Amino acid sequence: MVSFSPDHQTTTSSGSGGESAKSEDALHALASYLDEDMQACNHAILERMQSPVALIPQLAAHLIAAGGKRLRPLLTLASARLCGYPAGPDHQRHVGLAACVEFIHTATLLHDDVVDESTLRRGLESANALFGNKASVLVGDFLFARSFQLMTADGSLKVMAILSDASATIAEGEVLQMTTQNDLSTPIDRYLEVIHGKTAALFAAACRVGAVVAGKSEEEELALEAFGTNLGMAFQLVDDALDYAADQRVLGKTVGDDFREGKITLPVLTAYEAGDSGDRVFWKRVVEENDQAEEDLEYALGLIDQTGAIKVTLDKAKEYAAQAVKSLDIFPSSELKTLLVNTVLYTVHRAY
What is the pTM of this model? Predict the structure, then answer.
């Protein structure tokens, strides 16, 4: 297995500011490298979210204005370029598909915030808090429809199969998460199945379609799919750790949301399994019975700290990150390959 640790240095960082700043530099470097493609993608996103129904672009613009690193469309653009997809106005398939990937992701965010009753998204009021649940669900549906228009416009049945399969898998992952909610008997394998569905599947599809538009071999397609899968798994594991370990200003959502919603994540499963009988009574009350007092989150954070649950979760994330890096071995050394490796480091370094 590839050696991987949070002390690993990225090639794009400079100065001081710690590993988190260095990892941010890595993502900025990837975006800078793909700046022309990313500008074209942003233009396509803005163009396609327009509608004569005023609430649609208004609500979509609110979510887009909230920020986000556009990691998924960046992966589509980067994968295409890594596979030698040529530049120029006659070669823009990767741009349309990157926009498609972002629309799928944005639609799922709108729906997720309604299901989770979230009030914050990237530090701002969530769309459902501002515009209401009905509007959020319906605009999410509109963005899904736009994504399928972009797939159809691309004209490749293979691309459509990859992205539509990913869309179905995302929905299955969200439903599976709902069925495991408040259930502390959930096996870790089932939890990993949930995060594969809700997060990693779209990362995988975003990467694979880049290889498809470049006309590369199935071996290279599958290597990029594996890269995306493992990167997505690491990304979600870190997100789940951050819900119990991050500053709210850094996380962009209310710390402890997963706790309040009774979501089953690796930090909770680890703390529950490692706890004594009294700890387990506490977890059953606050998670399975959803009987929570104001001070319970602080107590839960203490138990998670005592049991090393955050370290367990981040160690698991690093395993997936190492696999993501390993999957790029098939590609020759290049500046873009280095930037993708550093993007993997960014994913894990967000927690440091």
Answer: 0.90
